UniProtKB/TrEMBL annotation:
The lineage of its organism: Eukaryota, Rhodophyta, Bangiophyceae, Galdieriales, Galdieriaceae. Pfam families: Glyco_hydro_14. It is an enzyme of class 3 (hydrolase). This is Beta-amylase. The keyword Hydrolase applies. SUPFAM superfamilies: (Trans)glycosidases (SSF51445). Its EC number is 3.2.1.2.
Length: 516
């Protein structure tokens, strides 16, 4: 838990953790809320089945626990003594649009091209019966080792069988440490996975998913988020918690032989062969260095602002962007095949891509932590628009985190600005005309965080002229009675209920939360 809070909030996280504990005790002292589930909306009108029909605002989804499916492929049916069907009924009554579930590569494809979808089919049937929508995340990364992870679901064993003889299928740092959380995009087009390229592995997974779940597209499944990197985010694993603490600059992760070769090829093609190498250790520091301690990232005279720095950072970021383009192209061929009406699900669901909220050092000139993560974003350069142009090409939604965060909760010496970063993402998504959806970065129950999400939502709606696609709340509480008791909701559950209603009817000019 200390590591969780330290990643996003630094030392102020200790204060926030104490605050959340007191808030939870306060909620328990309140006892059960007097709000019965009468299925009425914010205006007092009847709501069919607990939904919020024709609401003009933003639909709310809730992330399911990461371990909703067990290691042996069974859907978890009971949480804190409550049956999952009962829990789904409570979510429906409270007015959420649906849930989000991770579909783990390591659980589904335990053997090459053999897929076990049974627990997820079962979940779709339950969601259909509950009249709830489902956001599915095709999670090609390891579960475990990131903020909030209380699980360990590695990549399939057959991937590690390949890695025994070729560890370069994974990202590596300059010391040769391989990160087995996600496959390096250096092998996107290399047939090293038992005869398949990484993109072919993803495409085969998409085809099996399509054939298995086609009957649920649109009526149950509303979004298919494609995991494109560590933690399901389109980024390099530059801040691994086993090596990094908040708010270090992180390290570049391009030292596997495939990416090193691609870097040299790019330098050769440009006639600058001597630049075909990543920055040297003496220049960039280590995972936990500050920008000022490095020659590369320091504000004034830093190598990031030289011709070599521009060449390398462009290449590093473009490798990330090309990975997104390759995988999204494969997804489009599978899900939106205009030449075959049976395989064209255009308009039935959205493809989505998650971008990480790397907000520390955002107020510096170099934005060091974003650079090592693969976002070539500095004080003088918008690094997100090139990514969003690729998402627009594939009509993909951008999903962005840290919507709940405020600058005044961050340590001043880390030069953080989650608010400015979210603002940049919102403006860039609008400028590139792509759909925008949001998430919170860490679990919370406090009203101020709900209000911050609503403020971002209103800002988007005023500028864009229509609501965000969705907000997904991380994560349904465990134990579940933090929100729900028999025939009533708790104090904290009431606050979430009020948030859902406020977001559904938010008309942008109001900043009031009913009941908050």
């Amino acid at each position: 838990m200390s590591r969780l809070w330290n990643k996003r909030f630094g030392w102020t996280g200790v204060v926030m953790a104490v605050f959340m504990g007191l808030l939870l005790l306060h909620s328990l002292s309140k006892g059960h809320s007097t709000i019965p589930f009468s299925n009425r909306d914010a205006a007092g009108s009847p709501m069919k089945g607990g939904s919020i029909p024709n609401a003009p605002g933003v639909p709310i989804y809730v992330m399911m626990p990461l371990t909703s499916v067990s290691d042996d492929g069974q859907l978890k049916k009971e949480y804190s003594g409550r049956n999952i069907s009962w829990i789904l009924e409570q979510w429906k009554k409270i007015g959420v649009e649906g849930l989000m579930v991770d579909i783990w590569f390591g659980l589904v494809e335990k053997e090459p091209q053999q897929y076990d979808w049974k627990p997820y089919i079962e979940l779709c049937e339950m969601m259909k019966s509950a009249n709830l929508k489902l956001q599915t995340v095709l999670s090609f990364h390891r579960c475990g080792g990131n903020v909030g992870d209380q699980c360990y679901i590695p990549l399939p064993k057959w991937i590690f069988a390949v890695a025994e003889n070729n560890s370069d299928i994974f990202f590596k740092d300059r010391d040769g440490n391989a990160d087995d959380e996600y496959l390096s995009w250096g092998i996107d087009e290399e047939p090293v996975l038992m005869g398949r390229t990484a993109v072919q592995v993803y495409r085969d997974f998409f085809v099996s998913f399509r054939e298995t779940f086609r009957q649920y597209f649109g009526n149950v499944i509303s979004q298919v988020q494609i995991g494109l990197g560590p933690a399901g985010e389109l980024r390099y694993p530059s801040y691994q918690l086993s090596k990094w603490t908040f708010c270090g600059v992180g390290e570049f992760q391009c030292f596997d032989k495939y990416l090193l070769r691609r870097l040299q090829q790019e330098a050769d093609a440009r006639g600058i062969s001597e630049w075909g190498h990543p920055p040297y250790a003496k220049d960039v520091g280590f995972y936990n260095s500050t920008p000022a301690e490095t020659l590369f990232f320091r504000d004034d005279g830093g190598m990031w602002n030289t011709r070599y720095g521009d060449f390398f950072l462009n290449w590093y970021s473009n490798e990330l962007i090309q990975h997104a383009d390759r995988v999204l192209t494969a997804a489009g061929q599978v899900f939106f095949d205009r030449s075959n009406p049976n395989n064209d699900f255009t308009g039935r669901f959205h493809i989505a891509v998650k971008v990480a909220g790397v907000h520390w050092h955002f107020r510096s000139k170099a934005h060091a932590s974003e650079l090592t993560a693969g976002y070539y974003n500095t004080r003088y350069r918008n690094g997100y628009s090139p990514i969003f142009r690729v998402l627009k090409k594939h009509e993909a939604t951008v999903v962005f985190t840290c919507m709940e965060m405020k600058d005044n909760n961050q340590p001043t010496d880390c030069h953080c600005s989650p608010e400015d970063l979210v603002g940049l993402i919102v403006r860039s998504s609008i400028a590139n005309n792509i759909s925008f959806a949001g998430e919170n970065a860490v679990s919370f129950y406090d009203v101020e965080s709900y209000r911050q999400i609503s403020a971002v939502s209103r800002s988007y709606a005023v500028t864009k002229g229509k609501p965000m696609e969705a907000v997904t709340y991380l994560r349904w509480p465990e134990p579940i009675d933090i929100f729900f008791q028999e025939n009533a909701i708790s104090y904290l559950g009431q606050k979430f209920y009020d948030f859902v209603r406020s977001m559904a009817y938010d008309q942008a000019e109001s900043i009031d939360f009913p009941g908050l």
